[in-house]
Every structure is written in C-alpha cells, then in structure tokens.
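Please go through the protein record below and explain what the tokens say about the fold. Record follows.
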Amino acid sequence: MVRTTRKPSSTMRKVPALLIAFALLLTLRVAIPPARAKKPQAMHVQVLVVGGSPAGIAAAVAASRAGMTTLLVEPQEEIGGEITLAWLNVLDLNLGPAGQSLTRGIFGQMYRALGQTFDIEEAQMVLDRLVSAQPKLTVQTRTRVVAPLVRDGVLTGVVLATGDGRSRVVTADEFIDATDDASLAVAAGVSFTVGREESGLDRRMQAATLVFRLAGVDRRGVTRYVAAEKMKPGRLCGVRGQYVWGYSEIVSHFRARNARVAAFDLNLGWQSDETVLVNALQIFDVNGADRPSLQQARAQGEAELPALAKFLNARAPGFAGAYLVGAAPHLYVRETRHVASAYRMTAEDILSGGDFWDRVAIASYPIDLHPYGPGQMNPYAVTNRVYAIPFRILVPLGVERLLVVGKPVGATYSAAGALRVIPTTMAMGEAGGEAAALAIRTGTTPTRMAQDPALITELQRRLVSVGAYLPSPRDLMAAAPSRPSPTYP
C-alpha cells in the first residue's frame, strides 16, 4: 500500500486564527449591539382563549361561531385536556328528573358523536373536527402564556411563547381563561383560594387520578361478577354500554407502598382494541397548579401500577389474565384554585336546587368530593336536584375584559365538587364564548354585563338559539314525577 502525506492547506492553517477571533467575539458580545435581534411578533384577535380543556374548546367554538376571530392556545401537544391527556373516557352526565339530558349545545354535539364511554383516539378526532369546522378559529398548541399585559386593571394582551422558542404579543378585545388552574387570571391579579382553604383546615386539593390501561381483561367474567354483585344490598355497581363499575369491596383491600397513593372502585372504560382504561388510582397532596408536583405525583402513581395489576390478577374476577399496558401521560386533576368572582356559588345553591336570574346553564351532578387524604369520604349525600349556574361565577373580580370558565370558576370548594365535570365545564365554556362575543358586539365588558338584566336576557336568548337548555330548575323539578336518586359511581 502506498501512503501519501498531504501538507496542510491554507484553509486548514486559517482554522486556529478563526477560532481565536470567534473566542474574542464571544468575549466582547455584551458590547456589540444585537443589530439583527427581532422584536416579538404582534397580532390581534377579537377573542383569545387560553387553555385547550373541554371548557376552552367549547368557549373557542362558541366565540368563533358567533362571528369573532378567535385564537385558542394550549401549552401541551394537543387539545382536549383531561380527555386526551389524562385519558378520562367516561362522562359524568347531568340528567334531569325524567332522565333527560340537561347539557346540550356544544357538549351535546360531542356527546352524540362519542357516547358516555369512548375511545380516546376517537375523542381526539371528534374534538379536532369540532374546532376545524370553525373558519374564524385558530388553534395553536405547544404555546404558553409568559405574561399578561394589564393596564389600569384592564387585560389588554398576553405575551406567548411557542415550542420553537419564538415569542408573540397577542392583543384581544376579550379574554377567556379556560385553564384548570386559572393561571391567566391569577397572573393578571385575580384573587383566589386554593383547594379547601376556606374551610380553615388546610389548602389541600382533592386527590388526583392516574388513569391506566390494561389488556387481557375477561369482559364476560367482569360482566358476570358485576351482575352478581348488583343483587347484593348496598352494592354500587353496574354496566352501562362500554362502562363498568363495581369492585369497591375488593379494591379496598389493596395497600400501596406509598402512603400518598390509594385505589378505589374500578371505573372501567372499554376501548375498541379490547384494552380497558381504569380510573381507580388516586394520589393525595398533589398541587395541580405546580408542574414539579404533578410530575412527581405521576411518577409515584405509576410506580404502584405493577403491584396493583398483580393484586387484581389474584383478587378481582375477570382480571386473572390482565396485564399493564401503560398509563396516561398526565394526571386527572379535579381541583386547584377557586377565583374570586362577581358571585360565589355555594353548596347550598347545589343542594337546594338554586335558580338565578342570570343562569347560563343548568346541571344536576351532585357534590362529589374525592378524598383530601387517606380514609376520607365525601360528606355529601347523592341527590338528583337540578340547579342553575349563574353567569356571575364566570366573571372574576379586579380584572376587566376577562372571563374564567371550567373548574376554577367562582365557587366554594364544596360547590366546585359538583361543577367540575366535563358536561358542566363545557356548558360554562360555551356561555363564556357567547358572552365574550356579545360584549364585543355591544361595546361592553363582562363585568358590566353581569349587572345588566337586558344583556343577560340577550345572552340567554342567544344560548337557547344555538341549542343550550335553560329552563328554570324549579319548574323542571315541580313538573317531574317522583324518581329515586340516580347512582353516580
């Protein structure tokens, strides 16, 4: 073999000199003005919705459907919130005294497409179609709010950061906070309480849940077991389409290694591939408004899943051959903050079937407080009372041109335990979207609208015209035959 030796080229000899020059440039970079630095891009929309939760989707669709240019931003990789990211695939319905659906409108459109139990992948497609059908609606994922822009108590815009590191200033005529923790409202200066802070006990929040997926579950075996259990007095169990529950007595014997983790009844939702999504594992002392707390809690919950799967193999009929497939990428968070608002809804409003002159939705889901700590139980009995939801709980105090929809609306922690379910949050979201559009058309603000009966009447008329159901709860209850209280798993 002949080897040749090449002399360094002139280009190669220049490399050390270039490196020295580059190092000097870095040293002096502070003194060199960033001539090519770009300012954040600016844009304006009529309505900006922050948070791609079910409530946020309903708000954005409603605002754009009402003719407003609307931008929906979501920090995660997809919209859908607890449905697509926490795998919550069973809907807790609002049913009237005659069994009729009380939540219609945009939620009703989604419910007709999916049913009470559904495939997560199908739900994602349905939600994507829902927003893509609105030509005036733009959805931007992987986008978070860096800071609100507030002047003299008026929210005028936000600074957004995208996943690729770019920033943008967005101004709007009206803003809707549809995050699960009211992050925009809080950053803008709205007062709030945390968890059950108002009770004076502590600031704990309801347990969060890690939904997980099992394969190999014997569906016939599960159905036979639940049918037998249903014959026993006091057992809460049932089969409703793809949805099954009724293992509370067995699961109560499971003991997690981590004291902040516990398992409750198996709420089972079958998927089209015959895997089962299981809503059972609860994690205590999770701060749903703090990302590190959420990440730590999810990891601790996931660490318990192999032991829980083995427990079910040995103890739960129908689960002998079951095996763990995976867990939801995010926790299902039931509670974080409760904002101060023009009206604060209470447990008494729920239990008495309260009605309001400014109602924008009606519901019947009972106060359902999941444990704040191990061994705790919901202190409220299940009722079938229909109650109204007033517009004023969507109107935060102290900041103009802002509405809050979804879980953090103005309510005591007990009342929020009833308002937190998807049908109700979507009804509030739809009302918020329509209200934002009405405020823009009439040149007013949500705060002033909340004090104007004529504008509220117009808002109610608009909601009914697009499919919402707004009868008086008291009229509904008075006209209905006596029925036993429904069973809520």
Remarks:
- The first helix runs from residue 10 to 27.
- The longest strand covers residues 167-177.
- The chain has a mean pLDDT of 90.
- The chain is about 30% helix and 20% strand.
